[in-house]
Specification:
Layout lengths: L2 H5 L4 H14 L2 E3 L6 E4 L8 E5 L4 E3 L2 E10 L2 E10 L2 E4 L17
Antiparallel strand pairs: 1-4, 2-3, 5-6, 6-7
Length: 107
């Protein structure tokens, strides 16, 4: 359900609740300090680089999926974070506070 659609239906209180829930559900996570991080088109190092995140970047994580195992500042993992449509980064470079999945698996 998109927030735009939800905002057009229901009472004023229901609309505010949906917008507030959507705004608080999206959290941004820091990329490891001093790292310019490659963003790839899929969950692995074999996928093309689509852009590079600058030092100090923070990213949303919409879903997570297994892929190529990568060693980074936060350990070795095969978890890849979907940060935008068709954009993935290795979870080993994202400070999530967990060694496991923190978001739903990507469909």
């Amino acid at each position: 359900m998109s927030v735009d659609h939800a905002a057009m239906t229901g009472s004023e209180g229901e609309r505010e609740a949906v917008i507030t829930a959507a705004a608080t559900a999206l959290r941004y996570y820091a990329v490891a300090p001093g790292v310019r991080l490659n963003v790839r088109s899929g969950p692995g190092t074999g996928y093309p680089i689509v852009r590079v995140l600058p030092v100090g970047a923070k990213v949303p994580i919409f879903c997570q999926t297994p892929g190529t195992s990568v060693t980074g500042p936060y350990g070795t993992t095969n978890i890849w974070d979907n940060i935008d449509d068709g954009e993935y980064v290795s979870d080993s470079y994202i400070q999530t506070g967990s060694d496991g999945y923190i978001r739903p698996r990507c469909a």
